[in-house]
Design brief:
single chain; 250 residues; alpha+beta; OB fold (Dihydrolipoamide Acetyltransferase, E2P); de novo design (two linked rop proteins); five-stranded mixed β-barrel; three-stranded antiparallel sheet; 5 helices; 22% strand
């Protein structure tokens, strides 16, 4: 098989032997790939620090025709996201991004827009004036949109009737994929209440603008985090391991 080149984000690594390492890489060109880096654990390997978690690197790999691991032949650091190394909240948010990409996407299923959204979020985490909580939610919504799970926020996801702006007494249910009107919410057990402000901010954060730069109260951030955590957990079928570390994001 001919060698392929890609721009990759390291989202998971596992020691394979005394000298080698297995890495899960999320690439812009090929989506998720799992590679064997022979000699990757040696102090003076060909990969050096390129396989550190949350490192952006340029790679060369040989794709296997069978179900086995691809073979990584070259990896060079392209970007290191230095703010993640000095801000614990930013690092936890970065680990969460890596977990979603590693566990919620298919092998060889490229999503260039999602790759760009992930790397942009990693650059923004920890920068002065950035709300990590809101920036992370904007990334989650971009991921949901790209994977086909964008929440319904303009109408009731159950009866499909439009819900006017400013309507109170609504709920959010991951089982139906979004908003529930006051009539439909009574028959749904997995619902969470959703405030007018939270609905408005979710709609704004779902768009292309940088509305995550606008401030939000701690109560609103907590509500948004609860709603997105509930939705992601339902869709994945399990609670993400990093989710408990996100509750105190500012």
């Amino acid at each position: 098989m001919p060698a392929e080149k890609a721009l990759a984000l390291v989202v998971r690594t596992t020691d394979w032997s005394e000298t080698s390492r297995i890495a899960t890489l999320w690439t812009r060109e090929r989506g998720k790939v799992r590679v064997l880096a022979k000699g990757g654990r040696r102090l003076k390997s060909n990969f050096e620090i390129a396989l550190d978690l949350l490192t952006l690197c340029r790679i060369v790999f040989i794709r296997k025709s069978s179900a086995g691991l691809d073979l990584l032949t070259e990896a060079q650091v392209a970007e290191r996201f230095p703010t993640l190394r000095t801000n614990l909240q930013a690092l936890n948010a970065g680990y969460y991004v890596a977990e979603l990409l590693a566990d919620w996407t298919e092998d060889y299923d490229p999503h260039p827009k999602l790759f760009d959204a992930a790397t942009a979020a990693l650059r923004d985490f920890g920068t002065p004036g950035t709300s990590i909580a809101l920036r992370l939610i904007a990334f989650e919504l971009a991921l949901l949109l790209e994977l086909g799970y964008s929440p319904v926020l303009d109408a009731c996801a159950a009866c499909r009737k439009p819900v006017p702006d400013g309507e109170r007494g609504l709920a959010f249910d991951p089982a139906v994929g979004g908003l529930l009107c006051r009539n439909c919410k009574l028959s749904h057990k997995n619902r969470l209440s959703i405030s007018v402000e939270a609905r408005r901010r979710l709609r704004e954060l779902s768009g292309p603008s940088e509305s995550w730069r606008q401030l939000a109260t701690p109560a609103l951030r907590a509500e948004l985090r609860r709603l997105l955590g509930h939705y992601v957990t339902w869709l994945m079928g399990r609670r993400p391991r990093l989710l408990p570390y996100l509750n105190k994001l500012s």
